[in-house]
Write a structure and sequence with these properties.
By secondary structure, this protein is mainly α. The protein is about 55% helix and about 5% strand. The protein contains seven helices and two strands; from the N terminus they run αααααββαα. A two-stranded antiparallel ribbon has the order 1-2. Keywords: Ribonucleoprotein, Ribosomal protein.
Length: about 230
C-alpha cells in the first residue's frame, strides 16, 4: 500500500520536472525574439525580389549580352537571398522556436490572438511605408521605416526652390511657427528673390509709363488751349 503513493509521487515529480524544462526563461525568450526578428527582416527583404529581377530588362542596356548578364546577376542575387531565408528557417534554433510556438498554440488556443492585417497598418509596401535594413553602432540589425520625404516650397512664378525654408511634410509644417515657414522679404513664403525684384521693377516701369502718358496728355491739352 505504501509503494503506490511513492510511485505516484515519483511520476508527479517527473512530470513537474518536464514541465519546468518546457517553460522558457526570459533569456531564452529574448533569444527567440531576436531569431524571429532577424527572420522577419530577411523575409521583408524578399518583397522587392521580382522588381529587382525585372529592373535590368526595363533599363536601357548597351547590348543584348549586357542585358542578359545583368539579368542573370539579379537572378543570382535573388536566389542567394531566398536561400538565405530558407537556411535561416531550417536552422535548428528557428525550428526550436517554431516548435515551441506550435506547442503553446496547442496548449492555449485562446491565449494567442490571430494575426489580422488591419491591426498592423505598417504591413503594406507603399510609398509612405518603405523599409530599409540598417545596422546600429551596437551591431544590431534593425528595420527602419522610411516615410515620404518632404518637398521644398517652390516659387509660384519660376518654379525654383525657395531657399531658407525647410523641406517638411504638411503635418510637420502645421507644427512649426510662421517665421520658420517664411523669409524676411515681400512674398517671402511664395516667391523667390529674383521674381520679387522683377515684380518691383515691373511695377516701377508701369507707374513711370502712367506718369509719362499723363504728362503727354497735359501737354496736348495746353497746346490746344493756345
Amino acid at each position: 500500500m505504501t509503494q503506490q503513493p511513492a510511485a505516484q509521487n515519483q511520476a508527479h515529480a517527473q512530470a513537474s520536472n518536464g514541465a519546468e524544462q518546457d517553460v522558457w526563461d526570459e533569456q531564452r525568450l529574448q533569444e527567440a525574439m531576436k531569431q524571429l526578428k532577424l527572420l522577419h527582416i530577411k523575409v521583408r527583404r524578399l518583397n522587392d525580389t521580382i522588381p529587382k529581377m525585372i529592373k535590368p530588362l526595363v533599363q536601357k542596356q548597351p547590348s543584348p549580352d549586357a542585358m542578359f548578364a545583368a539579368f542573370m546577376n539579379s537572378v543570382t542575387e535573388a536566389q542567394a537571398n531566398i536561400k538565405e531565408v530558407t537556411d535561416l528557417m531550417r536552422d535548428e534554433k528557428s525550428r526550436e522556436v517554431f516548435a515551441q510556438a506550435r506547442k503553446r498554440k496547442a496548449e492555449e488556443p485562446e491565449g494567442i490572438e490571430s494575426w489580422e492585417y488591419y491591426d498592423h497598418p505598417d504591413c503594406y509596401n507603399t510609398t509612405s511605408n518603405r523599409t530599409r535594413v540598417i545596422k546600429t553602432p551596437g551591431g544590431d540589425i534593425r528595420l527602419l521605416h522610411i516615410k515620404k520625404r518632404g518637398t521644398v516650397p517652390k516659387c509660384g512664378d519660376c518654379g525654383s526652390k525657395l531657399s531658407g525654408i525647410p523641406a517638411l511634410r504638411p503635418r510637420e509644417y502645421s507644427q512649426i511657427s510662421k517665421p520658420k515657414k517664411t523669409v524676411q522679404r515681400a512674398y517671402g513664403g511664395s516667391r523667390c528673390g529674383n521674381c520679387v525684384r522683377d515684380r518691383i521693377v515691373r511695377a516701377f516701369l508701369i507707374e513711370e509709363q502712367k506718369i509719362v502718358k499723363k504728362v503727354l496728355k497735359e501737354q496736348e491739352q495746353s497746346q490746344k488751349k493756345k
